[in-house]
Amino acid sequence: MSENTEAAPLWWLYLVRTADGSLYTGISTDVQRRFAEHENKDNKNKGAKALRGKAPLRLVFQIVVGNRADALKLEYKVKQLSRAQKQELIGLDVDLMKFETWLQTKR
Question: How far apart are CA 76 and CA 84, in angstroms?
């Protein structure tokens, strides 16, 4: 049996602000690639439908969260936050542990 020496990719949680000030929350293993897809500069329409026609877009928050399952759970929690709480999150300079602790206080 061969051993899989390739490490699992790290997943990131990110927030994008649209031209009208709306906030979009997503996850990816490559935030820069995904953000470029959202911007759709190559006209391949690989970005989220929710962001189409809402340019210019700005990447306003990103944090590494580990594996895909953890990323999905945190994405759900962030999507449940109020706009004011998301604004507060954007202003934080946190690592994952502080981020999870902060989220716990927002329930």
Answer: 17
